[in-house]
């Protein structure tokens, strides 16, 4: 199994910088375009039951305050579907453990509108490259009409231990993006906090990285 890291090029300019990456990787780094890839990220919020409502103004104010408190107390669930792992999704509720499930979970959740409602649904499509021992996946991040930078997913093939290829991953990233690029990235995590192994990397680790990137960067 490979190890991966994620990078968001925050000040990228859209198609121009995506074209720069593609040309630089294929011509300067002698990489090979291996086709398209995709990613899906969803954010769900649980439905808080408020009980029976009354019509008088005092009760309406109390209900409003109660709903605001419920909004703060409600739970969020992150769900990631990786194109390189079809048929599987990875979920995490409010920083608890990562759960791997069949793709059919999406259908089940869509029918449980009284328990979970979808707050955000992001689909990303891009291009994949092979560069020596590395796999690079690149795509623009579009949230509706808002452009949020360029996404890079880097996998290093010879390593399967989390947090053991940090320097190699960092050096590869620096070889791909220009010096002026403003990057958001995290190369190391304590995976055991969410029930994942700190010894063997899996696609669930990659799913968790996406959840952290989208949450910490305010993309969801």
From TrEMBL:
One of its GO terms (molecular function) is transcription coactivator activity. GO terms for cellular component: mediator complex. The keyword DNA damage does not apply. Keywords: Activator, Nucleus, Transcription, Transcription regulation. It holds the Pfam family Med20. Belongs to the Mediator complex subunit 20 family. Component of the Mediator complex, a coactivator involved in the regulated transcription of nearly all RNA polymerase II-dependent genes. Mediator functions as a bridge to convey information from gene-specific regulatory proteins to the basal RNA polymerase II transcription machinery. Mediator is recruited to promoters by direct interactions with regulatory proteins and serves as a scaffold for the assembly of a functional preinitiation complex with RNA polymerase II and the general transcription factors. This is Mediator of RNA polymerase II transcription subunit 20. It comes from Phascolomyces articulosus.
